[in-house]
Amino acid sequence: MKVFLSIAGLVLVWGLSAPLLGAQQKDTAAGEHIFSANCAACHGADGRGGERAPDIATRRNIVSLSDTDLITIVSKGVSSVGMPPFGYLGTQKVNDVVAYLRVLQGKVTVEKITGDPKAGHALFFGKAECSKCHMMNGQGGFIAADLSDFGSGISLARLKQAIVAPNEHLEPTSRVAEIRTLSGQRISGLVRSEDNFSIVLQTEDGCFHMYSKSKLASVRHTSHSIMPDDYGTKLSSKELEDLTSYLVTASKPAANQLSSKGKRKHDAD
Prior knowledge:
This protein is α+β, with helices and mostly antiparallel strands. It has helices at 18-21, 28-38, 40-43, 60-63, 67-76, 91-104, 117-125, 156-164, 231-234, 237-250, 252-255, and strands spanning 2-6, 9-14, 109-113, 135-136, 139-140, 176-181, 186-194, 198-202, 208-212, 216-221. Helix 2 crosses helix 6 (91-104). It starts with a strand and ends in a 14-residue tail after the last helix.
């Protein structure tokens, strides 16, 4: 990844890491054809998952992997989850399909950040109340995902979409469950553990609650998260720009690369 800081504003180049810029060129157009023929049937044409394989376009644990890691996975497969190896395609084609995957992940774009990260910081820990649930570099809550490196692996458009439409492409572990006890008490929270006999919820105050299902009237798994879905109206366009700018510049990889003096360039692995 390359990061430039200039008077005109912060320009982020989400690259595919140093190997893409080296001697071996990667062809994303060819990668698209390879992906369609070999990967889309399981992972979906947009990489966001299908009936037989998970989302590899937006899940942070996948997006944050290095190119080397992805190339290894594609080449060798993952036998434990039934993914076959594709090393027989050859090095060039494997590199091409990884390059196209990065396109699906939104990591091959040139972005100019026009928001104010300082104002975004104030929003994160203030009006927007993100820190009640999310942690950023050791500060904040822990019931929701740690966002310390979230901004380093997602395009600004997708990052903004994640804020204003949190229930799109929601992972099962982020969905709220609502239970009703035999006495009529209703409790909602994130499912931290569940089997045929018991369920453990973590409520918004961070506390864990274990219930025996035999003592519950009902358990309902919802399709929404604990994150408010009104940020599109609660925050102005300028505030959303400021907040996304903060999430990007405060992310661990980016924070180590930014300088407040002049222009600095850095190639990340």
